[in-house]
Amino acid sequence: MAKKEKEALFKCPKCSCVGLEVVEINVTASSPIHVISEDGNFHYGKPNIEGGEVGYFGCEKCGFELKDEKGNQLTEHDEVVAWCRKNCKQE
Ligand SMILES: [Zn+2]
Fold this sequence. Notes:
The chain is mainly β. Helices cover 12% and strands 33% of the residues. Strands 1-4 form a two-stranded antiparallel sheet. It has a two-stranded antiparallel ribbon with strand order 2-3. Strand 2 and strand 3 form a beta hairpin. It is elongated, with a radius of gyration of 18 Å. It starts with 19 loop residues before the first strand and ends with a helix. 8% of the residues are buried. It binds zinc ion. Zinc ion (ZN) is lined by residues 12, 14-15, 17, 59, 61-62, 64.
C-alpha cells in the first residue's frame, strides 16, 4: 500500500483564513437565459465556464496572493505545496 502524502495546509498570513483559491484568467463564461421577466430582468441559469489558465493562487477571503521570493505569482501546483509547507504552520 502506498504511503499517503501528508496534506499541505494553507493559512493566510494576512487574515489567517484557511481558504485557498485559484483565480483563473482568460476564461469564457456563458450563461443560459431562462426567463426575461415582464420588468426586463434576466434570469440566468448555471454558467458554463470554458478555457482558462491559472492566474494565481491566493486567499479566498482577503485576496492575498501567493508569490515566490522574486515576487512572481505562483501558478504551479508544486510551487503552492512548497509555499504552504514553508510559510504556513503544518500540523
Ligand atoms: Zn487572507
